[in-house]
Description:
Number of strands: 2
Strand content: under 5%
Oligomer: single chain
Number of helices: 16
Amino acid sequence: xxxxxxxxxxxxxxxxxxxxxxxxxxxxxxxxxxxxxxxxxxxxxxxxxxxxxxxxxxxxxxxxxxxxxxxxxxxxxxxxxxxxxxxxxxxxxxxxxxxxxxxxxxxxxxxxxxxxxxxxxxxxxxxxxxxxxxxxxxxxxxxxxxxxxxxxxxxxxxxxxxxxxxxxxxxxxxxxxxxxxxxxxxxxxxxxxxxxxxxxxxxxxxxxxxxxxxxxxxxxxxxxxxxxxxxxxxxxxxxxxxxxxxxxxxxxxxxxxxxxxxxxxxxxxxxxxxxxxxxxxxxxxxxxxxxxxxxxxxxxxxxxxxxxxxxxxxxxxxxxxxxxxxxxxxxxxxxxxxxxxxxxxxxxxxxxxxxxxxxxxxxxxxxxxxxxxxxxxxxxxxxxxxxxxxxxxxxxxxxxxxxxxxxxxxxxxxxxxxxxxxxxxxxxxxxxxxxxxxxxxxxxxxxxxxxxxxxxxxx
Length: 459
C-alpha cells in the first residue's frame, strides 16, 4: 500500500522569511486554528495598518494644535456635534480648527472598524493581528470618550481645573496605547513571531521599565505643555524657583531632566537587548528606537529654543508617539517565540543558594565598593572645593549615600550585561551574576531600586 506524501505547511515566523508560494499558513498558538493567507492579503493589511497609523499621528498633531492655539472651545461644550449643529457656521478660526479636529478624529472610528473586519476575515482566531485590531478599536472608542469628557467639562483653553491635568495625562497614555496597537497590527501582518511575555528574564524587566518610563515622560511633557499654555513665562527656570508660581510652572523644568535620565535608560535597555537577543529584527528595531528618541530630543531642544511655538509642540508630540511605537517594536522583536537567547541558560542546576550574611555580602559585591570608594573620594573633594570649606554634614552625607547608590546601580547593571564575558575570566568567574547566586532579574531590580533612591536623595 503506497504511503501518502506528507503535507508540508509553511509558517511565517520572521519579517525576513519569504514564502516560495503565493500562500502561507497562519497558525494560532492558542487555538491551533490554521488557514491559508495569501501573501498579497497580508501585505495589503500591513499597508492599511500603516496608513491608519500615519493618519492617527496626523490627528494627534492636529489635536496639539487645537490645545496650544486655544481652539478647544471653538465648538462650545457640545459633543459630538459642533455647537449643536452637524455643519456649523464658521464664525471664527477657533471653530474651524476645532471642527476640523473633531471631523478628523471621527474618521478614525470607521478606519478602526475596517481594520477589525479585515483582520477577522484573513487572520485566525487568537492571532496577534486580530488581538491588535481589537485593541485599536477599543482604544479609539476610549479616546473619543476622553475627548467628550474634556469638552463637556469645559477643560479646554485656559481652564485650570485639577481634573484637566489628570485627563491630559490619561489622554497621552491612551494615545500611546492606541499607537502601540496599530504598530503591533502592522508588524503582525508583516509576519513577526508570536510574543511570549513570561520567562524573558532581565530583557522583559528592562523593556517593561522602558515602556513605563517613556509613557511617564509623555505625561510629563503634556503637563509641561499645559503649564506653558496657562502661565507663559520668559524665564522658565526663574519662574519655577519662585515660591508664588503655580505648580505646573514649577514642574516644567523637570521634563527635560527626565528626558535625559530616561534617554540613558533607553540606551542601557537597547544595549542589553542587543547583547542578549542578537537577531536581525532586534538590530533593526534598535536603530528605530535610537533614531526616534534622538529625533524627539532634537525637536525638544528646538522647542525650548524657539519658546514652544504651536507647530513645534505638535511635532514634539508626534516624535514622542514615534518613540513609544519604536520601543513597542523592539519589545515585540526581542520577546518573540523562538528568538535566539544568549541568557537561556540563566539558571544553572548547581547555582549556590545564599542566605543571611552571605546573601547581603553578595548584593554589596554587585555595587563594587572598592571602585566606588575612589569615585566618592573625588566627589567629596569637589564638594569641599565648591563650598570653599566645610559643605555641611547633611549635604555631605546625602552626597556620599546618593553617590554610592547611583554608582552602585550602574555597577550592578554592568555585571548583568557582562556576565557571559566575566564567566570566561578567572578573576570574575565567581561573581554572583555569573554563578547565578543572584539571578539577573533580581540584580536588575536591586539596581533599579538603588537608582531611584539615589535620584530621590540627590534631587
